[in-house]
Specification:
The structure is a single chain. The chain has about 120 residues and is α+β, with helices and mostly antiparallel strands. It contains 5 helices and 2 strands; from the N terminus they run ααββααα. The chain folds into 2 domains: about 55 residues, no CATH class; about 60 residues, no CATH class.
Length: about 120
């Protein structure tokens, strides 16, 4: 049996969400959003990051909300060190209280290197 194909979702699939947001939101193609936004949130499966239009994002503030899920995105060499439930994922940025409403914490490059080095593969945990 062939594997199911996944369809790309276009802005028309977000009608209910846009209606909920009211004047605060609108749906657009990736290129339209990148060109129009003061703040652009990229939320695509990691395996699709190359499809994100780069040129319209130049000079913009971009929040990357991508997460690597090996089951979905495939294996990435050293990618397991940053997957969910590892030392470098979420907790260092959220802080000890996990206060979603508070400011995130900055992590230095040195701290991130230490966290990545401390990671354990799921199979080794």
């Amino acid at each position: 049996m062939p594997a199911p194909t996944r369809r790309r979702r276009g802005p028309e699939t977000l009608t209910e969400l846009v209606d909920e947001l009211g004047r605060s939101g609108r749906a657009a193609t990736a290129a339209e959003a990148a060109a129009a936004g003061d703040l652009v949130v990229v939320t695509v499966p990691l395996k699709a990051y190359r499809a994100v239009p780069v040129e319209p994002l130049r000079g913009e503030v971009v929040i990357d909300k991508n997460n690597h899920y090996p089951q979905r995105d495939g294996q990435i060499a050293e990618g397991w060190r940053y997957q969910r439930d590892t030392a470098a994922s979420v907790q260092p940025y959220a802080g000890p209280s996990w206060d979603a409403d508070g400011p995130g914490s900055q992590v230095t490059a040195e701290q991130l290197k230490e966290l990545l080095a401390a990671a354990k593969r799921y199979r080794d945990a």
